[in-house]
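Section 3.1 - Work completed
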Amino acid sequence: MRVLNRGGFANADVLWVERGGRSLIVKDWSRRAPWVRLLLAPLLVRHELAMLGRASGLPGVPRSQGRVGRLALAMERLPGVPLAGRIHALSLPPAFFDALDGIVDGLALRGLYYLDLASPSNILVLPGGAPALVDLGSATGVPLPGVLLRRLRSRALAKLRRRYEQQPGASPRLPAPSGMAPRQLDLGRVRFRLRDFGPASDPVPILFLHDAGGTGALWTPWLLGADRAGRRMLAPDLPRFGGSRAPRGSLAPARLARWLERLLDVARIKRVDVVGAGWGAVLARALAVRCAARVRIAAALPAQGDSLDQWLLEHWRAARDDPPALRESLRAGLPDVLPDAARAELERALDRAPDALLCRAWLDLPLAVARDGAARLRMRESARPWLDLGEDATLAAAARQPERLLDALAALATELP
């Protein structure tokens, strides 16, 4: 199961569920407030099922798969990508919007009036480039004045065209394959940009945590092999870096570990293996300390034990005394086997990270420095197993042989009680 969107107030959580060889979308209100579950959610479930039933067989609209208990409903999953500025901005041909208008016409012929056409998240771009319309909870069967409907519809389509219609002379683009493009997962005060690859049935996914200034693209060598390895892999952009958003303030590992725990809660993930690189390795340790029962195994790159502490100390000193040197060191540490697109994304993210933010990530580390210059993290040791990949286990070396890390995780997992 994957959580595609976390609902708020009276909105459902949207889940991608694989059951019996079928791929379903489930809208679930079971985590809303008690009064919503008692009074509003059953009405919303009944309404959307009724709308799906009346639209059954219309191309570009998902088919209903019925009620799932009292507070959820299921529909077929259409293999499309929601409209998003990063992917589809000024790239869709005019025919796309003509076809979308045709879907709305088809609903109207069945007595259904779609009222939220302006929301990009309700519109999918299918692999062949055709549109699909989801969230029929936004439709109504109550007749409305024709003038009002035409005005709402024309305004919504005009807004979508301004944002997404291909400009004359531009080359057409197709969307990224479904499941490949990062998505946003809103937790309220924090919003994570998340890559989620591999089979949703994996009971213990791998959570990858990147270095300061980077994004989840750092883990591309592993993510691209997720299906082949049979492992689900999650690589978020950590708060305030890349495409993630979070309140201003400390970047102390303990604070970020609370946000990562919340991410696991919202994604409905019970247990994980955690792998961190550089600054992300400290967050992996903090998460393992905070969620001892939830983290099965933790691993750090590029080093282990004292060598990791000394590596962190060097970057802590650069953050204090020479921010440009810190930025260049992080850039030099990017694996040389990264695909061009992933490297370009990481370099852009590093360039855009302000000096103050980048330095704060390191200066907020709980490092203790002895008189002899040795450093240690002033953090509790995790009770979870800590995977030792050997002295040559740098991030660059691991990226050249991504299966080595996966094999080591699997071998240690078999030794656990």
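Second construct:
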Amino acid sequence: MPLRTAEQYLASLRDGRRVYFRGQRVADVTTHPVLGLAARHAALDYQLAEQPAYRDLAVAGGRSRYYVPPQRAEDLLARSRLIETATRLGGTLVVLIKEIGTDALFALSIVAHELDQRAGTPYAARVRAFHEYCAEHDLALAVAQTDVKGDRSLGPAEQAAQGNPDAYLRIVERRAGGIVVRGAKAHTSVSTNANELIVLPTRALGEADAAYAVSFAVPLNTPGLTLIASPHGASEKNAFEHPLSARHKMMETLTIFEDVFVPDERVFLAGEWQAAGPLALTFVEFHRFTAISYKLPLVDALVGAAYLLAEYNGIERAGHVRDKLAWLIAYAEGLRALVQAAAARCHVRAPGIAVPDPLTVNVAKLHFAAGYHQAVARLQDIAGGLLVTAPSQEDVESAELGPLVRRYLGGKLGVDAIDRLRALYLAADLTASDFGGYQEVLAVHAEGSIEAEKLAILRSYDASAAKAYVRWLAGIEGEAAP
């Protein structure tokens, strides 16, 4: 089957899936005023593959490059460039309909191979068959990983004592030909406009948690599956005041499984609790590489907006402004260098898939997350209070008020007032709107929390060499020269 067009992708979403927005069942996610915006944003992936300027980047071997498992550093770098390019064209908002799903497929391939070798399970062949099916049909994928968790001081199996055994998704029945699952997953991105949903465990598990050690894939219109879409950022917007969020949107859902049947060929983990932690960890090693790749256009936009507004405001030579611009450049370029280093330092795991270096990936993700709010503050300081007090589009277009706006808001001599307002509104959409708030929360929590990244850094770093070097420097007996 050839690559799908954007129109074919959108048509595939009209499948009777059970989606709710603000309490109302959505009949067609492609025509809904909010969910439709997200679907059209996601269609950028299919449009990219049709454009000659991007085809060699977006397509490899006749299929979407996303579906091609990386085998070396160069493959990871090409994947990163594709993610960055799609996000740049998507107005700094990641498309994600193939990025996250293939991150999951790569992780499943590795862990299923290892589990089959160790325990004789049948999962690797199932993962390969599902991967091939998705690639051949050029499908859009979502991933549901984060459980709702209930009392977070308790493990999955312990939740039953609190009357909430479904706080983590679990197997409730094993039937001939498949399993039945019940529970809910939170923060499921792009689920309203994906074709298939891959479910992964969210954490390491113990033997008592075996029923919660489950991974599988189902179509989004599977009976018993309900998506409750988040309304965040869904207010009506115009493109003058919201140049990014009026055109680009990503949906997240509370994803509920009410006794959903999953056939055996779609089950990738079913009770093997020892594999739950490695699967969750391997997935985030890929997905945090995806994350730092799609953050690049966002941090570039912060730098560019700061430069442009400094010029428009006539303050580009002020010492404190130059200091802020230098910090922003170092922040953005530091992230870019770490992305490249994570690919260059990759290692290959059976069955031949290159995994980005976990230490570098988590250092990069921590660098981004820890600095993002500081970057926002620097741009806001350079931009000034007009970020939140500027006249509206209606004022600008008014025959009476428009000339006054142009007269008084020109900024530096020669700067057109409307151009200045457009730059201000772009900066406001990035940093002072519901879209800006969305990005700030994602910086802290998406792809794992800041604390999770710190733990991963500590886990990945080999401190023995550093300690040995210091023992040698200090003259501690028994330490050989490095």
